[in-house]
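User: Could you check the structure of this?
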Amino acid sequence: DPITAKEIIHLMQNIQTKYNTSSIIITHDVDCARVISNRMILLIDGVNYASGTFKELSSSSDKKIQAFFK
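Assistant: Sure, the predicted structure tokens are below.
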């Protein structure tokens, strides 16, 4: 449900700002990750395969990383 997802993202952002804290968000929702994250870590087979900003990862030429963004 896109409306509820948007409300949850805003809630997370407000909490981060209000309490000056970080969050660990585990998601398969690429749009959510794009909006909420400063840094992403991609796990492949339980291993930290890649990390970086959304822009860095989404522009990667690595086929395994690109699979997350299609």
